[in-house]
Amino acid sequence: MFTHPSGPALYNESVNTPTVWINADLHCHSAVSDGTLQPEALAARAKANGVELWALTDHDEVGGQQRARDAALALGLPYLTGTEISVTFADITVHIVGLGFDADNEALKAGLAATRGGRRERAMEMADGLAKVGIKGTFDGALKYVKNPELISRTHFARHLVESKVCSDTQEVFRKYLVEGKPGFVPHRWATLRNAVTWITQAGGMAVIAHPARYKFTANEEYALFTEFKTLGGEGVEVVTGSHSSADALRYTETALEYGLLASRGSDFHSPAESHMDLGNLPPLPSQLTPVWEALESRVHRPA
Ligand code: AMP
Ligand code: MN
Ligand code: MN
Ligand code: MN
């Protein structure tokens, strides 16, 4: 069904033939947010794993974009700018990936900075919650893993709690301590869906709903998310991601077709030690879908 391209074209120009397959990985994290590798090391890993189009999508940050792009292009790897914005929708945290925007756009940068604001205070409250169940010193513990002082995340707490042997892996930390109803969970209000989509699209990019199977929405809430997202100008949904089972991918293939959304693919790679899905190491998108990269052709940074 899929063939690897022999030439430089990203996709087949002829409309009725199946999309030419490329190994695109459009979702991962560096130490600029909650990944463990620097952007340059991620670029090298993506290249080594056979990725043919790459985007670094740090949470609420574009601080790593220039480095990621420079490193990718030096390796001959086409690059799309990326970010993953934290949004609150119907009291649930939803992630919106932005692709192919201008990373110097002032409104986008200001919006992301505002979204990052409050992470430190939230982290202190998380540490207080954990201290109440006898786990002390987690704010300083988490900080040891933080490379970007504006981006303390639950992931950094999870790494500290594994390192200090409270849990054996990060999944266990989340399950026991960091999700809703658990002692280290602090409800937080992130960006609105409208703001996130608008920041991305006004900076010339495409908004994509990240890993939709992860959200615990009712059917009505999910319908509201997808319809409002479309109305606001959102264009894509992740179908194949490190956060989806194959059943999830099939389900959101239907959703993409139903809502007329383009489909994205990304590992959500964070760390060699923690991520079960490595960069570029994902199943292909089902062939009935139109990949996001077909509409992002003009936004791809290409090696000279
Ligand atoms: P935050 O933005 O601080 O709420 O942290 C969210 C991050 O935590 C996500 O981007 C993932 O990297 C990580 N995460 C969320 N849920 C889990 C989980 N169940 N297991 C491992 N990591 C998770
Ligand atoms: Mn993360
Ligand atoms: Mn996410
Ligand atoms: Mn992610």
Task: Please name the defining characteristics of this protein.
7 strands, two-stranded parallel sheet, binds manganese (II) ion, 2 domains, 304 residues, alpha/beta, globular, binds adenosine monophosphate, disordered N terminus, DNA polymerase, domain 1, TIM Barrel, five-stranded mixed beta sheet
Number of strands: 7
Percent range for β-strand residues: 5-15%
Q: Given the C-alpha coordinates, what overall shape results?
A: globular
Uncertain stretches of 5 or more adjacent residues:
1-18
Rg from Cα:
19 Å
Sheet having the most strands: 5 strands, mixed
* Tally of individual domains: 2
CATH architecture of the largest domain: Alpha-Beta Barrel
The strand line-up of the biggest sheet is 3-4-5-6-7
Class from secondary-structure proportions: alpha/beta
CATH topology of the largest domain: TIM Barrel
Q: Total helix count? A: 11
Query: Separation of termini?
Result: 31 Å
Bound molecules: adenosine monophosphate, manganese (II) ion
